[in-house]
What we know:
The protein is mainly α. The chain has one domain (26-145): Orthogonal Bundle (Cytochrome Bc1 Complex, Chain D, domain 2), CATH 1.10.760. Helices cover 34% and strands 0% of the residues.
Amino acid sequence: MRVPALAALLVFAVPLPPPAMADTELRSFLIVGDAIPDSLTGKPGDPAKGRAIVANRQVGLCLLCHSGPIPEERFQGNLSPSLAGTGSRWSVGQLRLRVVDAQRLNPDTIMPPYYRLSGLNRVARGFSGKTLLTAEQVEDVVAYLATLKDP
Length: 151
């Protein structure tokens, strides 16, 4: 019978909802040297949630440019450094600044600022005035990246 096949096709043809939008107001933070030493939320993030954000191609988009120790994701980027070993290379505060706004460290980086509202170019109307990740999501990603130690 063709109806189930057609119904299945329609289910897969329905567009996915856009990812949840993030903060419209920034929480204050202090940059010290090359780091944001204090959590944006006042508490540590959840590494499991951070891994899910890094792997998600509709939220973090990290694997578009980076590769990482996420073997179930077959197509990973090679434009930027591997995420493997990030917890050995940088402190939690250094990782936080890189996720919040890597352009503070390298104005020519292609990495988007995940927690910035001003000074952005060519922002799609639906994203205008919103961060790419919430403060909580930033902390989750930082918590995950900090677990990625060199052997």
